From TrEMBL:
<keyword id="KW-0057">Aromatic amino acid biosynthesis</keyword>
<keyword id="KW-0809">Transit peptide</keyword>
<dbReference type="InterPro" id="IPR045865">
    <property type="entry name" value="ACT-like_dom_sf"/>
</dbReference>
<dbReference type="InterPro" id="IPR001086">
    <property type="entry name" value="Preph_deHydtase"/>
</dbReference>
<dbReference type="Pfam" id="PF01842">
    <property type="entry name" value="ACT"/>
</dbReference>
<comment type="pathway">
    <text>Amino-acid biosynthesis; L-phenylalanine biosynthesis; phenylpyruvate from prephenate: step 1/1.</text>
</comment>
<dbReference type="GO" id="GO:0047769">
    <property type="term" value="F:arogenate dehydratase activity"/>
</dbReference>
<dbReference type="GO" id="GO:0009570">
    <property type="term" value="C:chloroplast stroma"/>
</dbReference>
<keyword id="KW-0150">Chloroplast</keyword>
<protein>
    <submittedName>
        <fullName>Arogenate dehydratase/prephenate dehydratase 1 chloroplastic</fullName>
    </submittedName>
</protein>
<keyword id="KW-0028">Amino-acid biosynthesis</keyword>
<dbReference type="InterPro" id="IPR002912">
    <property type="entry name" value="ACT_dom"/>
</dbReference>
<keyword id="KW-0456">Lyase</keyword>
<comment type="pathway">
    <text>Amino-acid biosynthesis; L-phenylalanine biosynthesis; L-phenylalanine from L-arogenate: step 1/1.</text>
</comment>
<dbReference type="Pfam" id="PF00800">
    <property type="entry name" value="PDT"/>
</dbReference>
<keyword id="KW-0584">Phenylalanine biosynthesis</keyword>
<feature type="domain" description="ACT">
    <location>
        <begin position="212"/>
        <end position="303"/>
    </location>
</feature>
Amino acid sequence: MNLLPKPLTASDLSSPSDGSKVRVAYQGLPGAYSEDAALKAYPKCETVPCDQFEAAFTAVELWLVDKAVLPIENSVGGSIHRNYDLLLRHRLHIVGEVQLQVNHCLLGLPGVTKEELKRVLSHPQALAQCEMTLSSLGIVRINADDTALAAQMAVSTGLRNTGAVASARAAKIYGLDILAEKIQDDDDNISRFLIFAREPIIPGTDRPYKTSVVFTLEEGPGVLFKALAVFALRGINLTKIESRPQRQRPLRVVDDSNEGSAKYFDYLFYIDFEASMAEPRAQYALGHLQEFARFLRVLGSYPMDTIP
Ligand SMILES: O=C(O)C(=O)C[C@]1(C(=O)O)C=C[C@@H](O)C=C1
């Protein structure tokens, strides 16, 4: 009988793909959609709630957690600008994305009917996504930092006329009744989250990848057109473009006549494109962009997520 220990292999050392042992920070309380997103990415992870987006970024930087999963855009509400801005202030890398179907429920204290509700608490994005349903019920909306906190607050008020808009999972966690399901105005209510880590992943070509970059350009006619052309020329599809004011740069005065002066803003452009940094066409495109961009940073090259 062979009693010698089995030699370790590389797969023994790498972390398991279901995410067990991985600690993942998210903004909100247990039951928030951001926690659902973390669990979709790492089904067996330990989720770590954070009160603000900034705290989740810092938790990764300080090695308190391994990853952070934060929302970046929603198909109805659009971009979450705060996270675009935080992305640049922290030196983390995007290592993945999560696309999540968000189905909102109207929740109330046990035994309450939806006609009894006079006000609901929720995250402002969630309230906006259910605008028509809530208006038709004539319910007053109150903002909360996340949907799970809204559910918890509805419970602690103890008022029969106060409910929350949150997930079915939040209803279960906080002991609320589901008075109506899928109350979002748009059936296809998708939120996209980004996964951040201290180290980038090595991109491959084994599956569809996305790459996210941020850059600034000199002022002048057609500069953005030229920047976008570096991708078009190589047949690279763009999936997202976002611009944000560049806060460190002062506003430029362009006309100092007696009529007053116009001020120009300088912008940061964030682009997501469908290619892996392991592909020469992506490397050439960014090499080309670097020739005339004043600043360019690759935020991450990571596998694309899909919704079943
Ligand atoms: O409040 C939550 O549950 C969140 O995870 C936040 C958030 C958001 O930031 O947009 C995430 C997805 C939904 O679109 C609504 C709210």
